[in-house]
Amino acid sequence: MDGFRDAAPGVRTTGAVPMTRHTVxxxxxxxxxxxxxxxxxxxxxxxxxAISEVNADSSLxxxxxxxxxxxxxxxxxxxxxxxxxxxxxxCRHVIGTITxxxxxxxxxIVERRGALLWYGFPYEGYEASESAIYLGACxxxxxxxxxxxxxxxxxxxxxxxxxxxxxxxxxxxxxxxVTEAAGGQVVAERFVPLGSTEIEHLIAEIHQKQPxxxxxxxxxxxxxxxxxxxxxxxxxxxxxxxxxxxxxxxxLENLDVPAxxxxxxxxxxxxxxxxxxxxxxxxxxxxxHGRERRLTTSFVGAYMSVSILARAIAxxxxxxxxxxxxxVTSRLFDTPIGQVGIDPRTQHxxxxxxxxxxxxxxxxxxxxxxxxxxxxxxxxxxxxGKPAVGRxxxxxxxxxxx
Length: 402
Prior knowledge:
Pfam families: Peripla_BP_5
Protein name: Amidase
Number of helices: 12
Strand content: 15-25%
Number of strands: 16
InterPro entries: Peripla_BP_I
Order of helices and strands: EHEHEHEEHEHEHEHEHHEHHHEEEEEE
Shape: globular
Largest sheet: 7 strands, mixed
CATH architecture of the largest domain: 3-Layer(aba) Sandwich
Mean pLDDT: 91
CATH superfamily of the largest domain: Response regulator
Radius of gyration: 20 Å
Distance between the termini: 42 Å
CATH topology of the largest domain: Rossmann fold
């Protein structure tokens, strides 16, 4: 069955109508309450937008029935809810999790139950499971391009702050390694409890130590609070920019207008992405959410997870995880960020990183892009110690951000 093959990541609504349409139950597992609720709500909106398109396509022999659960940002709830979705509701695919803690809690469940986790958020790498499809960027697709830009332009003395869990620990560690490999020195490395907004002590230390730039690996409300406090400091003294691998338009929305501007972020998707694929995607999403709705990488990562899964089910004529795994790693998929391929060795997506600068409207304006999608290197086998270098889909060495 080829119902999605020629469609832009939207869904075709023409073609023969099947006599009957069977239901495919799918677990949607995002925290829409709790410490990083805004990210969860954004991801849920993206997943539901894709499900709506799938279910509107009368040429498909199936429709998706979402099983929506909210773990409320509590790590222990992810395993319980994913187990119940698979065992009691017949879900063979879990779309979700945001933090690395939650992903690592769900992985043993899907591995034991023979299910498949679809993960669409940037993460710290050093992981590959046959029971997961990784559609978010790993370090050679976010941190290394960012530091390739920052170190030669702003200096080699970063101040690094991260949320106190796996993402913060590992990205801070890699940032230190990259900095030292370039001959630089990390001024300080600090952690904040996940969800905490008590960051005044960090601002005081940054003021005192005067780094060349700040790398912010904080998540959700912590990131917003940090940027707001940092802006208060820059109103009194000259300070360097905040650089980040995970702050999106979403974190800027709740800031005062002046505080939104002047931050540097890297991502595989920004609302500003000016490509035919994204223009078409945004036009479709405007019909659903309105033209004023900014789209973020959180929305798009979840949307892609559902959309690629649905096209794989259509191709394989089954939702069996083994068949889906073989399908998604053997072809390219049209998505809002362009064509995406998934490496059969690691089940990570090849992705094209972009570098953007935020403005007073809370939008990230793209200033530079990788010339091609970069093959994921989750264990940094090729890239570690070479922050300026990535590899394209042919294995050719290339400069990531120029």
